[in-house]
Amino acid sequence: MMKVSVDQIVDEGGGIRSFYFRPEDRRQFPPVLPGAHTLLRVTKGMMRQYSLCAPPGDRRYRLAIRLDPAGRGGSRFMHESAHVGDIFYLSYPQPDFLLDPDRPSYSFFAGGVGITPMLSFLYALQGRTCRIRLCYFVRADGAVPFEQEIRALCPQVEIFNSAQGGRASFEDLLDGSRGDAIYCCGSAPFVAGVQGAAESLGLGTIQVESFVSGVKAGYLGEPFVVDLPRSRHVLDIPSDRSMLDVLLEDGVDIDYACEAGVCRSCIVDVIEGEIIHRDQCLTEDERRTVMTPCVSRGRGRIVINSI
């Protein structure tokens, strides 16, 4: 990972702050493709995934982080404890939500902080002759986050602020996007709503960014046992807890970020036992020997040799 320091913090409104980072262990950051994200090591063991959205020409990395008081602690730490000059670690850019640069027209649907990858798309399309449309759904009592920046980049912007009664039908909006390359980013319900509307209109597949899997809280599967020969610990994983939760409670030093089987941060090696895979990131070859303990489980007893 890259050692970085906080160079600037900007309050964007709507509970979102932009954190600008500069490199500490190199002269400049690697280049970033539009839509790429990075993993931010918030504290030891805790990693979070954020889109990179700095304007072209700014040699810093920008992460826009929305405060979620009911979240898992990453955003709260950054909003309450991060200051200019503080040291953090970032992964190299991860290009998993990428823009097709050769389409004649685009429709972008953004919900809340899901606007961040769309910002990078808008910057990448500057100077192009293509048609660009942005539908931005937000809840903001005051200033709409990034509104001035967005309007400077995209002439066709529709902002629906639910705090001021702004509402719109996904079907009606998508009906005006036929033939466009459609991209969507936001909360899981927001993405599901846009996808469902697109399917009902027969628009086919749209490109989405989602860090949430379909694994539900509550009953997660049959209990199993994890044997950790390096630490000589044997852990019981109950039916209502993830293996990652139990490992962290036992004091195991393991990185994690999405807790949804998407980002690959928590992968561990399995040398014995049957794995019940529920991730969305491993190849079939990888699944023979590794697993993501945030969502995947074992059957009976498994042996982990990497932690």
Automatic annotation (TrEMBL):
| Domain FAD-binding FR-type per the UniProt entry, residue ranges | 1-100
Under the heading SUPFAM superfamilies, the entry gives:
2Fe-2S ferredoxin-like, Ferredoxin reductase-like, C-terminal NADP-linked domain, Riboflavin synthase domain-like
Highest taxon above the source species: Bacteria
Q: Which GO terms describe its molecular function?
A: iron-sulfur cluster binding; oxidoreductase activity
One Pfam family assigned to this protein is: Fer2
Q: Which InterPro entries match?
A: 2Fe-2S_ferredoxin-like_sf, 2Fe-2S_ferredoxin-type, Benzoxazolinone_Detox_Enz, Beta-grasp_dom_sf, FAD-bd_FR_type, FNR_nucleotide-bd, Riboflavin_synthase-like_b-brl
Start and end residues of each 2Fe-2S ferredoxin-type domain: 224-307
Protein's UniProt name: Oxidoreductase
- Write down the species: Gluconacetobacter tumulisoli
